[in-house]
Amino acid sequence: MRIFGMLDSGNCYKPRLLLALTGQDFVHVEQSTRDGSTRAPGFLARNPIGQCPLLELDDGRFLAESGAILHYLAAGTAYLPTERYAHAAMLQWMFFEQNQHEPAIAVRRAISVYPERQAVATPERMGQLMERGLAVLAVMERVLAQQDFIAGPVPTIADIALYPYTKDAPEGGFDLGAFHHVMQWLGRIESLPGYRPKDWTPAA
Ligand SMILES: N[C@@H](CCC(=O)N[C@@H](CS)C(=O)NCC(=O)O)C(=O)O
């Protein structure tokens, strides 16, 4: 399997982290998501959505969208609950990640970190993103005060989906200091067997 992605991207970190946690072999292919090359015809032929991460299976098929990739890669592992309610609860938090968490926290971080995004860093926009991001973190704080992982007592791919941009939230100006349960949850994920940080790639 090959994962096309940019090391600094939280979306691209999600499948790498799951593959590390579940001990699956893969090759990381560095693919910039900042230079427009994901919108070039060659890349679009592999992924019409024009974004990373992109998974290439051994049989040559491709799969995009980090949530779908996590779902595929977690099949048969403890990170993908099969019981009907547990599975749907996991999906609930993965949709929350895509609809609310990533559009606020990851976007504010990208604007803060990548110089080419500075043009959209108006005080109004940054203020809105901060407000929405803090509301998202407050949701997580309430849930994680009650249970160890976001969808229940054990880690699922919903935790893997939410971890990278929560971890990087301070780079977007978010102070996690007030979110004690969120910080403890970050620590629990980092204690899982096989955990690797964002800049990790498997040895060639
Ligand atoms: N919903 C997608 C979002 C992926 C995404 O935003 N990828 C960014 C990098 S973090 C990208 O490829 N940007 C380049 C572009 O949009 O041209 C997912 O979860 O995979």
CATH fold group of the largest domain: Glutathione S-transferase Yfyf (Class Pi), Chain A, domain 2
Largest sheet: 4 strands, mixed
Helix/strand-derived class? Answer: alpha+beta
- How confident overall, as mean pLDDT? 97
**pLDDT < 50 runs, ≥5 residues:** none
Spatial arrangement of strands, main beta sheet: 2-1-3-4
CATH structural architecture of the largest domain? Up-down Bundle
Tell me the count of domains: 2
Description:
This protein is α+β, with helices and mostly antiparallel strands and 204 residues long. It folds into two domains: 2-74, Glutaredoxin, CATH 3.40.30.10; 84-190, Glutathione S-transferase Yfyf (Class Pi), Chain A, domain 2 (Up-down Bundle). The chain contains seven helices and four strands. Strands 2-1-3-4 form a four-stranded mixed β-sheet, with helices on one face. Helix 5 (123-144) packs across helix 7. Glutathione is lined by residues 9, 11, 33, 38-39, 50-53, 65-67, 98.
Please give a handful of descriptors for the protein shown.
about 200 residues; binds glutathione; single chain; Glutaredoxin; 4 strands; Glutathione S-transferase Yfyf (Class Pi), Chain A, domain 2; 4-stranded mixed β-sheet; alpha+beta
